[in-house]
Amino acid sequence: MDLKKAIYFMLLSTLAFTLMNGLLKFLTSYSAYQMVFFRSLGSLFFTFGFLLNRGIPVLGTHRKLLILRGLVGSTSMVLFFMALHYMPLGSAVGLRYIAPIFAAIFAILLLREKVKPIQWLFFIISFLGVLVLKGLDRNVPLIGLALVLIASVFSGLVYIIIRKIGSREHPVVIVNYFMCIATIIGGVGAIFNWKTPVGIDWFLLSSLGVFGYFGQLFMTKAFQMGETNAIAPLKYLEVFFAVIVGVIFLVEEYVIWSFVGMAMIIGGLLLNIWFKQRLLKK
Question: Which of 34, 124, 139, 200 is 20 to 30 A from 228 (CA-CA)?
Fold first, then answer.
């Protein structure tokens, strides 16, 4: 275990995802499908290259689960990208982190896992944060909230599918399926609302996949080098970075209730992580 390197890689991952999300918000003149297409296609160059270079079978062995993961993940991505058209970047990123609550519900229903009563209290705190963000921040319209929450439902289901796959597939094989299916879905959807990029937009759209890939890569390295309870909370810095990018570069405005809601969402989830780590140590 190398905690310093793990923290370094997690910070790089968070910055990479922040840059990707900032570009997504900046490029909202393009449809969500077109952004999904470019984001996924850009990552495919890295995932295919990695698998072919290492001699890892591209098709994997648990293909039904891999395809299901790709379809569910792509749906979540499309919905989140749509939500960015309606609300500030920081609010959208903060609301997306509600996904672990839905993952816990799916784990109970599909994997027969148990959730302690106090964990539900932590989830309620996070959910109340969503109500604060929606009810007291006029920059979060109902359609944007609905899109990002449904995206989080599908994201929560992704966690369960990946857990079901377990270590039976190489992580890059799982990501590669996801990117392949997202490229197809994004490409087909973009046909009906295609806007030909001009000038630097070609570079910016192509950069989405690069930042997305390295964000995923650095996050994986971080979890490999450090303990989850020490590394996982750093992921939530993405909300803080997203707000900074939104205010400085995207000229977004936030009210005090925006930060209260985000703090409640993240606080409830961090308390849940802390509690689960305590249970593991007993």
Answer: 124
